[in-house]
Amino acid sequence: MPLYETVLIARNDLTQQQVEAVADQVASILAEQGGEIRKREYWGLRGLAYRIKKNRKAHYMLLGLDCPPAAEQEVARQLGLNEDVLRHMTLRVEEITEEPSAILARRGEDRERDRGFRGPRPAGRFTSGRRERGDDREEFRARPRDEMEPAGQGEE
């Protein structure tokens, strides 16, 4: 049977359990038609690139499907009818890998990197942002008033 990967984006006001229930509905549709879900990854609540139906965030889920083409078409139809699903996309793939997807792998790397030592906090972190001491460059040093007069008027 052909293999597919489906990513669905669900509304942000749902809970993770409700998103899992949508995936369970997909599993039941596939079971009726002789298919199965081989891989299921919940990517979490993530920000959208643009607003979709007044939502700025959404729950993402990846499903690896092993089913006949007719079952995949029925899954796509049911996801399109479900009001909780904002968008879905299905691609045919050669194989479904058991390792975590790139999204989950990157998330794990980010957590490891964030736990490392970041060094001391910069001085003046909670100040107004102005420098405590003056600038040492010559052009910013205070000059006597007589040096500031134009060349033609100062000396006669």
Give the tags.
156 residues; 33% helix; 4-stranded antiparallel beta sheet; 5 helices; alpha+beta
Describe the overall structure.
The chain is built from 5 helices and 4 strands, in the order βαββαβααα. A hairpin with a 2-residue loop joins strand 2 and strand 3 (55-66). Strands 2-3-1-4 form a 4-stranded antiparallel beta sheet, with helices on one face. The chain has 156 residues and is of the alpha+beta class. The model has no long low-confidence stretch (mean pLDDT 83). The radius of gyration is 30 Å and the shape is elongated. Helix content is 33%, strand content 30%.
**Sequence stretches where pLDDT stays below 50 over 5 or more residues:** none
Rg, alpha carbons: 30 Å
Secondary-structure content class: alpha+beta
The helix/strand order is: EHEEHEHHH
Report the major sheet.
4 strands, antiparallel
Number of helices: 5
What is the strand arrangement across the widest sheet?
2-3-1-4
Give the terminus-to-terminus CA distance: 100 Å
- Helix fraction bin: 25-40%
The gross shape turns out to be: elongated
- The overall strand count is 4
| Proportion of strand residues | 25-35%
Mean of all residue-level pLDDT scores: 83
